[in-house]
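Subject: for your reference before the review

Hello V.,

The reviewers asked for a structural picture of the protein, and I figured it would be easier to keep everything in one thread rather than splitting it across files. Below is the amino acid sequence we used in the manuscript, unchanged from the supplementary table.
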Amino acid sequence: MTVNEDKIYGRELLSKRIGICITGSIAAIRSPEISRELTKNGANVISIMSKGSQKFIKPELMQWATKNDVITNISSKLEHIHLTEGPQKLDLIIIAPATANTISKVANGISDTTVTLLASCALGAGIPLIVAPSMHQSLLSNPIVKSNMEVLRKLGITILEPVIEEGKAKITYTDTIIESVINRLYHKDMMGLRVLVTAGPTYENLDPIRIITNKSSGKMGFALANEALRRGAKVTLVSGPTSLTPPLATDLINVETTKQMQKAVVSRLKINKYNIFIGAAAPEDFRVINPSKIKISSRINKTFSIKFETNEKIINLVKKINEKIFLVAFKAETGLSRSEMVKNSKIVISESKANFVALNDISVNNIGFGQDTNQMIIVKENGPNIVIPKSSKMIIAKKIFDEILKEINENNLLIHKI
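And here is what came back from the structure prediction:
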């Protein structure tokens, strides 16, 4: 697998058997796309089609999308039993799209179609179910349909809220569906832990319309927040300005300046007992002492000078507030030897009392700021240092949390769980 493929497809669903149930909605045209994305993430996808769905797409299309035979009716082979019991048992079933009719039948134990029969068996077998509704908005507002959806939620079924557009409750985005599948099947080794992550750049004002900033995109911090959520942690993400969509279920705090980020971090640390803090943001080290209150005119000012003062290091405040928190600092370097970079990282450990530093050399092409890939050296006070080779930022995030949990377990660091 190439790095670029790895960026998008982390193989989190490798060896997982996923059933996609398709019902009679025009949104059935999205089912092949959803299936393809699941397979690209490593899943073995089996499609189950109701008669209604076959009015919109043909089984041959789903066979192409999944590379598996399509189940269009329940025969004497007892497909619904084989898929919910024994060696062919599915790991998860998603109904996408799910009509109001299908949702109501599943909620009331009616099993008169291929999809509702499989869903009923899945509930009995304890197989996780995800439902992606698609219907007219009036149907979604129907109190009976609402009640039936609540029944499904109480049964532990995940309901993915539809996108409301043009008077219709349209099936949610494919990325949301894929992430929901991954999240349901991910190992939950961080349940009960609370994580605070900083991400992205900060701005420092030069005048009312000009800023000083850096090239950080926030991708690394967002990847870390997403990984923690997948593992079951409660996550707060303090983010500088980015164009990224935050992970679902994140407690997001948007800031602009370094001082705003500092205030947000300090206030959260004082309010909540966080177990882990990861300073993946790139807050500006300097701020303008006296930013102009009006736009600086290039016609009047052919040259001008700027005076800066240093911002307080956010990372140095963390353990002063919570000395038991597991602290990971990030450090970016350019143009230094490895030994020099490691030496500087150990100074950060000394000053901040960090448990380790995630070090990256951003002068290397195609890694670090603004990129989808990174390579890291995890620097510890007493070593050994751990080299993470060039990988997608999602994989880097996974390995960082693997190391955090390893350190906690090996050093018997008692962490209060929420």
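For the response letter, the relevant points are probably these. Residues 194-294+301-410 form a domain with the Rossmann fold fold (CATH 3.40.50.10300). The first strand starts at residue 17 and ends at 22.

Happy to draft the paragraph if you're swamped.

O.
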